[in-house]
Design goal:
Elements lengths: L2 E6 L9 E5 L2 E7 L5 E5 L13 E3 L2 E3 L6 E3 L15 E2 L1 E4 L2 E5 L1
Antiparallel strand pairs: 1-10, 2-3, 3-4, 4-8, 5-6, 6-7, 9-10
Pfam family, one: Rieske_2
Protein name: Rieske domain-containing protein
InterPro entries: Rieske-like_NirD (IPR012748), Rieske_2Fe-2S (IPR017941), Rieske_2Fe-2S_sf (IPR036922)
């Protein structure tokens, strides 16, 4: 895995997704209400669509088309649905956000 500079934390808006493209990977980046930053693939396996425009509540993202509940921590789609999205390790150094791809 390679750690790449994605963006500046100051450019994020809490609970609003930001699309990052690193080495051909479309990554949805979210800052949670508590300041943590999560990176998850911008693709839902159930709808075959992007998740970037979903609604964030706590540590969960509600997929925009059918509101599947997805954990931003481990990428699991919550019951009664099932599936998994890839999550990417995030490291913040000063204001720089690095993502491992």
């Amino acid at each position: 895995m390679t750690k790449l500079l994605a963006t500046k934390k100051a450019k994020l808006i809490p609970r609003i997704g930001r699309l990052i493209d690193l080495q051909g990977e479309r990554i949805a980046l979210f800052q949670l209400s508590d300041g943590r930053v999560c990176a998850i693939e911008d693709y839902c396996p159930l709808t075959q669509g992007p998740v970037l425009e979903g609604i964030v509540s706590g540590e969960y993202l509600y997929e925009p088309m059918r509101e599947y509940k997805i954990s931003l921590i481990d990428g699991k789609i919550q019951e009664p649905d099932e599936g998994q999205l890839r999550v990417f390790p995030v490291e913040i150094i000063d204001d720089d956000i690095y993502i491992e791809v």
